[in-house]
Structure formats: C-alpha cells, structure tokens
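Loading example: each entry is read as two labelled lines plus one structure line.
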Amino acid sequence: MIEVKGLYKDWKEFALKDITLQVKKEEYFVILGPTGAGKTLLLETIAGFYIPDKGEVRIEGRDVTSVPPERRRIGFIYQDYSIFPHLTVEQNIVFGLKLKKSSSPDTNRKRVKEIMAWLSISHLAHRYPPALSGGEQQKVAIARAIAIEPSILLLDEPLSALDLRTKDYLREELKRVKEEFGITMVHVTHDQTEALILADRIAVMMHGRIVQVGTPYEIFNKPLTDEIADFVGVENILHGVVRSNEEGIAEIEVDTGTILAVSEYRAGDVKVCIRPEEIILSESRGESSARNVMRGRIKELHDMGPLTRVKMDTGLVALITKQSRENLRLRRGDEVYATFKATAVHVVR
Amino acid sequence: MNLLLRWSVEKLKREKIFLLSLFLGLFLVAFVVITLGNMFYQQAEDVDGLIAVALDPVVLKAIGVSLSMALVSTLIAFLFGVPLAYFLARKELWGKSIIEGIVDVPLMIPHIVAGIALYGVFMRYGLIGAPLRRLGFVITDAYPGIVIAMLFMSFPYLVNSAREGFKGVDPRLENVARSLGASHWRTFREITFPLAFPSLLNGAILSWGRAISEFSAVLVLAYYPISAPILIYEKFTSFGLRASRPVSVLLISVCLVIFVVLRVLHRRSK
C-alpha cells in the first residue's frame, strides 16, 4: 500500500502540487496525464530519487519520506528500459539479488534462471543490451525489477517506446506479473487505452495536481471537468444551459437543439460530454428507447482502420464501425440522425 | 587507408563532404608529420648519436623523471579531479560556472606566468612553501616541484574529460541501481564509474601527455632534478640543434609507443 499526503516538489520545469493519493495493496493503479503534467516526477519522488519539499510518502504504513531509495523495496521501470549497458542480461537481472544479505551465488543463479524462463528470455542470458530489441530490453527490465521481490513496482511509461504488437504483448505480461507475484503496480502513462485496459483505478494528473481518481468507468464516463473530458477522449463537449429538471432528467439547451441527460443540475451553464462511441447513426428517425435524436449533415468522414469517425455539422462526432458505415452507405453531405441515451450524456459544470 | 580504398567514384560523388573534411583535415596531420618527420629524418643520418644518447645515463634519467613525475601528477589529478568532475556533472548550484571557469584557467594563462605564480606560493618563503619548509619539506628544485608544476598545467584536461564522461551516464541508470538496493557508493562503483571509465581514461591520457610536455612552469619551479624537456633545452642552448635533437627523438619515440598502447587500451575500454 502506498499513501502520499500533501506532497509538494519543484524540480526544473516540473512541479508537484499538493498530491494526495492512496494506492491499495495489489492494486493496478494508473496515473494518466498529458506530457509535462509531472507524472514521472511523482513516480520518482515515491521511489525516493527526490526528497519532497513538503508532504510525506508512506509504504505499507511506514513513513519512508526520508528513507533512501535502496531501502524502500520498490521496483522501478523506465520508458527507455535503463538496462546497464556494460552488463549482460543475466548480470543485469542478478544485480539486485547480489545486494541482498541472504543471497548466495547458487540461489541467485537459480532464481535468475526461473525468472528468465518465466518471461521467455532465457536465450538472451549472455547477450549485451545494445543487441536487444526494445521489447526484449523491457522484459529484462521487468525481470531485473521483480527479481528482488519488491512489494511495489513503479512503471514510467513502460510501453510508450514500443511498436503496437510488442505493446499489446507486454501489456499482458504486466498483468501477469501483477497476478503472479501480487505486486502493487503504479503505472504512469499518457495513453488512455493503456489506462483503460490495465487499471483497477486511474488517477488523472494535470499541471502537477491529481484532478480525479476513480475506476476506469468513472474516469472515462464521468470526468469531473471538461479539461479531463477532453483529455480522456470525450470528443463531444457542448456548452449548454439547463432549462429544467424533472426527476433527475435535465433538459439542456445547446446551440443545435435540446439534449436530455441524467443529471442533478437544475439550472445554469453546463458542459455536456458524450463519448463518440455512444452515438448511433441512422438514416431515419427510428423507434428506440434512446431519448436524444439530433438531425444533421455529415461534414467529414475519417477512416481509422476498423473504425470511422464521423463529424457532423451539429458539432457532434460519432465513432462507428466500418461495417455500419458500409451498410448505411454514408457519404459526405448525407443527412443522418444521431441517437444517444440520456444516460450516455455526462454533465459537468 | 581502408577508407580510401573503399571509396569508388560513385561513392566519392555522394560523400563529397567527407572527402572535403579529410582533405582539409590532412593539413593538420601533415603539419605534425612533416615537422617531426623532418627531425627523425635528419636524425637518421646520425644513428650513432642517437645510440650514444640512448645509452647516456643522464638522458635516460631525465626521461625517467619526466615520465614518472607525470604519472604521479596524473594520479593526483585523478584522485582529486574525478570527484570534482562527478560533482560538476551531477549537481546544480549557484556559482558552478565559476568553479568550471577556475578549472579552465590553467589552460589559458601562459605557462611561464603559471610557473612564476607557483614559485611565489611554493618557494622557501612563499605562502605554502614557508610552512612546508619548517616541517622539513622543500618543493622548489625537488621532485615535488616538478609534480606541482605538471599538475597545475594538466589537471583541467582530466577534469573536463571526466565531467563529460559522467554527464554521459544516464542518471536513470543510477536511479534504477538504487531502487534495486545499491547504496549511492555502490551505484557509483558498479554503474557510474565503469560507464564513465573510457572518458576518465581519456582524460588521464591527455593529462599525462600534457604533464610530460610541460616545460616553462617546471623550469621556474624545479630546474633540477633535471627532466627531459629541460635537458633538451639545456643541450639546445649550450650545444645547438645537433646535440638536442637525439634526446628529442628519443623522448618522442618513447612517448609515441606509450600513447599508442594507451589509445588501444582506451578503444578497448569502450
């Protein structure tokens, strides 16, 4: 378990401002935020590479704020792998083991063998890091970190420098690490998909502050501010005014019409967030239980592989599959109906 | 040579800039080769003179003094310069550029000026020389004087090269080592030092070479015990070119062999 309380740190162009966090035992915790938000600095401060200006860090209940990194039992993995270039793969992995008081060359060798086999990198044992691919290097970094049996693993954009296939594969490996060893994982990334797939909980970090903590569902469907909504990929953010509210269903007037949304707001200016994949397109106003239907013309069609992004003159953006695009024979200038449920609309101030 | 052989006309067209670089650069190489080559060539006509010098105990002792005192100077520069370089590479503090500027000063001032300044401090009545004399140590006209003059003129090469070497070691490697349980000391010993070592060795080679070649500052501080450059100077002023040349050729030859060996070691250490 990690507890961070009222943490402040200024370092070069980065800053941490009043960071308070709790990561539960054996949780996969993702810190999501744009570049320059201070995510790496936060991770490095938790690891003890920096002494905070103010605040405290507790690990498993122990105050470690002034404990040097080598006595914190935390594994750390960087985006660029940081494999010691003058040591072989095997020597890299055994590095931390050799430093343990209880270690003996025989047990160390056995443990390194086990870990290499578990991550399928046994064949690389005697190679030097420059001869390895990015994916291989990152596996070595993972092996080296888990060799010392840390209770916590801190990962700084561990997948960002990898190609798509390797990324998918290593993402599964990270899940496997957490399940096999029961390690508490704190993973920093700017990639929403990565966060969505891996996280038990997500903390969104912006401008040196934690702005929202919640389950992936909460973060992606109920962002607290429009800035968060914008960052987590809610492409439809409309400005509107609440006209009325009946039994928790707010009627909100936007530029292009009226939207019904599940919300507690009774009046005033709001922002309406709708995820593009929640919008259904059809040629005619069909019968459905969805409360919102907006007519509009197609302004742009963006091919995104298996998906198509459809931008309409009402300002709405919808994400549909290639299949439905072909079935509807959508072309620019076509008139379509955009349908979405009142529950798919998220209202923020 | 290999490079030249592998160049075809087609390649020459595409690699014009390299050709130009080589062409211009060769001027400097030729500068050295012609100057020293001429001296070796002239000496070749007087092999007997060279052999006589190579057997002369005074000459051999002077070369020995130069090489060994330069080694002592380099070891001292290493002992104090490597920590300074590590600090300069890793820490930001107010006045850091002042420290870096001070380190570079010996590179800028005329060597004779440095010699006179050192003399003022280390002579029998000098700031440091006087108390040392009371303790029974004499610096001027003694081995320590040679070492001090060499050290002053040569340590910046070591510090600067080592600093760049330490800067080239990613601090994240150190962070990871710490997270794996290595203390700061151990991290320095097992990660930072070995990775920066090629640069430290390079700095030591430069510093050692510079120390051997120091003349003016040594001249002022410790004319005796006689070291190679001073012996050569003495022979030149007393007996002329013919007398000083064989000693020069011998010194250059010895140094050349040592430097080539060191350079090979340096390449290997990378």
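The longest helix of chain B spans residues 57-90.
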